[in-house]
Amino acid sequence: MLRPATRPALVATRQVRQCAARFFSSPVSPDTSSSHVHSPSTTPETNPAPPPPNSRSSTSSSKGKKPLTAEQRAFLSSALRVNQAGELAATLIYTGQTPPLVTRDPSLRPLMKHMYDQEAAHLRTFNDLIYRHRVRPTALYPLWSVMATGLGWGTAMLGKEAAMACTEAVETEIGGHYNAQIRKLLEMVSEWEAEGYEVGAEFRHLINTLRRIRDEELEHLDHAVEHDAQKAEPHWLLTGVIRAGCRGAIWVSERV
Ligand SMILES: [Fe+2]
Ligand SMILES: [Fe+2]
């Protein structure tokens, strides 16, 4: 059952962005996805994402669009919920990491800002989507916020290598997580096309959005490895614990 996004969660996200902006040399981009921008009356049917301008369905069918099944609606709701939670955590990890890292090595400031800015944009994307489609955000916002900030700050205090190992571990899990979602959505597309239904432009746009974000997460993974993530000691333990924590957080956020 889809429910309206709760105002406290959106307020919390706004506060996070305001807090994060103070740590970087320039503020994050203005939030253009605030809740008041969109009509709350939109409900998810077969189009869970906003369409790009002038986009059109690539299929032409007299059957039109097939309504989502209850299972598909539940999948999309949990996907948007967990993605928003994950992107919130990502912004907080970089927010926690940046002051200790940049204080010791100012040359890391552009990289940290670049990765943070991309995570902030991902978070705006999913804030927009969960509000537009009236998906309840995770109830564990406060818990994830504390844990992500602590993880970022703690690994940065251990050193650059540990901080980068954290990014390597997180992005490995998140890259796989987005890939699994993309595969599921492509399966839905294949089924609809096989049955002669249209696939809406918004649905295709959602898949392309997930692909772009997945690619940016994997870019972060590459940056981390290039910046000595695998020299962290003990690398296997650090990355193993963080990856297990990510999997647990994903599992919980999909449901709670
Ligand atoms: Fe992200
Ligand atoms: Fe990332």
Automatic annotation (TrEMBL):
Reaction catalyzed: a 5-methoxy-2-methyl-3-(all-trans-polyprenyl)benzene-1,4-diol + AH2 + O2 = a 3-demethylubiquinol + A + H2O
Main subcellular location: mitochondrion
Pfam families from the UniProt entry: COQ7
Top class in the EC scheme: oxidoreductase
Its EC number(s): 1.14.99.60
SUPFAM superfamilies with a match to the protein in the record: Ferritin-like
Cell location: Mitochondrion inner membrane
InterPro entries in UniProt: Ferritin-like_SF, Ubq_synth_Coq7
CC cofactor: Fe cation
Coiled coil: none
Binding site for Fe cation 2: 119, 171, 217, 220
Record's cofactor remark: Binds 2 iron ions per subunit.
Amino-acid positions noted as binding Fe cation 1 in the UniProt annotation, renumbered to this chain: 87, 119, 122, 217
Recorded GO MF terms: 3-demethoxyubiquinol 3-hydroxylase activity; 3-demethoxyubiquinone 3-hydroxylase (NADH) activity; metal ion binding
Entry function: Catalyzes the hydroxylation of 2-polyprenyl-3-methyl-6-methoxy-1,4-benzoquinol (DMQH2) during ubiquinone biosynthesis. Has also a structural role in the COQ enzyme complex, stabilizing other COQ polypeptides.
Stated family: Belongs to the COQ7 family.
Name of the featured protein: 5-demethoxyubiquinone hydroxylase, mitochondrial
Species of provenance: Neurospora crassa (strain ATCC 24698 / 74-OR23-1A / CBS 708.71 / DSM 1257 / FGSC 987)
